[in-house]
Amino acid sequence: MKVDMTVREGLEQYQRTISILKKGYAQETYRISQLLRWADADLPMREITSPHVARYRDSRLQQVSRNTGKPISAATVRLEMSLLSNLFDIGCIEWGACDANPVKQVRKPKSPPGRDRRLTVREDRQILRYCKHHPTTELYSIVVLALESAMRQGEILRLEWEHINLKLGIAHLPETKNGTKRDVPLSIRARAALTRLEVKSRGRVFSYTSNGLKSAWRIMTQRLGIEDLHFHDLRHEACSRLTELDRLDIMEIAAITGHKSLAMLKRYTHLRASRLVKKLEGTGSRGRQVIMGQLVPYPAIAEPTKEGRVEVRVLDFENMKGYGHSAEVAMQSAQDQLLRHLITALRDRTPVPPPNQYLDLIDESRVFMLDPLAPASLDQHL
User: Fold this and answer.
1) 170 close to 186: Cβ distance less than 8 angstroms
2) Beta bridge partner(s), residue 314
3) Handedness of CA 130, 132, 135, 140 (dihedral sign)
4) Among the options 14, 208, 268, 298, which is catalytic?
5) Annotated domain spans of the chain
6) Per the CB 3.0–4.6 Å rule, which of 67, 85, 113, 179 could disulfide with 103?
7) Does 125 qualify as catalytic in the annotation?
8) 3-class SS letters over 257-314
9) What topology is assigned to 291-381 in CATH?
10) Which residues belong to any copy of the Tyr recombinase domain (predicted)?
11) Across residues 304-322, what is the average pLDDT?
């Protein structure tokens, strides 16, 4: 039976009966609201042809986003066209509102390349410092979890205490984007980020909504002067770091991150390739690589003392300070302590913090990287 229905009526019925059942209901609601502004939305679905859809595509690509001030992305238009195509499929098969799907005959905008935005060391330090001193203690824990576990934003915000086993270090995700449940291993740092909150026996871990976190993230990046960094980029950063560990194979990484298709993880294989080059070139034994990987620079700060001496403080280690009557002597003292600590930790197989993780509120221009193996030279930092 044929039914007369306008595009507007079809979109509204689609939202009530189909979108409401989807996990991405909020995102589809936004896209539907945009499609309702279409100049041809009041035409009957049966009268819509491919030229109508092509004009919508071209018009949207010329518009500017009110939030970012930048042109609407091709990815956004592709998603809107996919929703519109689904609407016409339902209209044809189930509602009898049209005879064909005109969207299928229209070229979609070229899909943009996948984002490969990585955090710089400076950005990592800035973000963690900002979040650690944010009035909302949850923000720091959310960012650390994203970087340590590769969980998606929605998965983090839906975490519940009854699904977290801090003793075993497991976060159970009963519902994910892919529609399958997943157990995510929690590193020591991820568990510490959770325990700094008020641990409960049940209930939501975080009170942030998706829009609330999006707003907090936007304000933070603006204040820090960080450009073109999305919260979802933390997931890419986490996947990259898991690949760089060199201890996990691709299947183990996929089990942690929840990627259903291994093709989605191919973008990270170049990280492993760069390490294979070193092995092929014979740059040293595994033991030497482990040792050199431990002896890395750490952030430090140099200050004159009241007694007229120089103090060099290594920021990631509590009470690690070097003193001397000159800058070189103070730096050498701090280097000796850092080197001894790192070698001892390697011998005893005890963990050491990665650089740049525990900075306090310090004027960044005063911070320098202390290399435990480099010649002492510090005059420029005083």
Assistant:
1) yes
2) 300
3) positive
4) 268
5) 7-105, 121-282, 291-381
6) 85
7) no
8) HCCCCHHHHHHHHHHHHHHHHHHHCCCCCHHHHHHHHHCCCEEEEEEECCCCCEEEEE
9) Double Stranded RNA Binding Domain (3.30.160)
10) 114-281
11) 89
Q: Is residue 232 among the annotated active site residues? A: yes
Q: Which tokens hold the place of 288?
A: 């030497």
- 352-367 mean pLDDT: 66
**172 catalytic per annotation:** no
Per-residue pLDDT at 380 exceeds 50:
no
Quickly tell me which residue has 């977290």 as its tokens: 164
Per the residue annotation, which of 177, 223, 278, 279 is the catalytic one? 177
Verify whether residue 14 is a known catalytic residue: no
In contact, 321 and 379? CB cutoff 8 Å: no
The answer to whether 177 is a known catalytic residue is: yes
Q: Could you read off the pLDDT of 134-184 as tens digits, one per residue?
A: 998 999 999 999 999 999 999 999 999 999 999 999 999 998 777 778 899
| Residue 152 annotated among the catalytic residues of the structure | yes
Kindly state which CATH superfamily the domain 121-282 is placed in: Intergrase catalytic core (1.10.443.10)
Query: d(Cα 32, Cα 13) in Å, to the nearest integer?
Result: 11
DSSP state of 39: T
Spell out the residues 6+ positions from residue 311 whose beta carbon is closer than 8 angstroms to its own.
302, 303, 304, 305, 321, 322, 323, 330
Element (H, E) at 35: helix 25-35
Q: How far apart are CA 60 and CA 34, in angstroms?
A: 10
Cα(203)–Cα(208) distance, rounded to whole angstroms? Answer: 13
What is residue 193's three-state secondary structure?
A: helix
- In the predicted structure, residue 373 carries a pLDDT above the cut 90: no
At 7, list the tokens. Answer: 């595009």
The answer to whether 124 touches 39, Cβ cutoff 8 Å, is no
pLDDT of 240 above 90: no
Residue pLDDT, tens place only, 48-103: 999 999 999 999 999 998 877 888 989 899 999 999 999 999 999 999 999 999 99
Question: Does pLDDT of 207 surpass 70?
Answer: yes
pLDDT of residue 256: 86
pTM of the model: 0.62
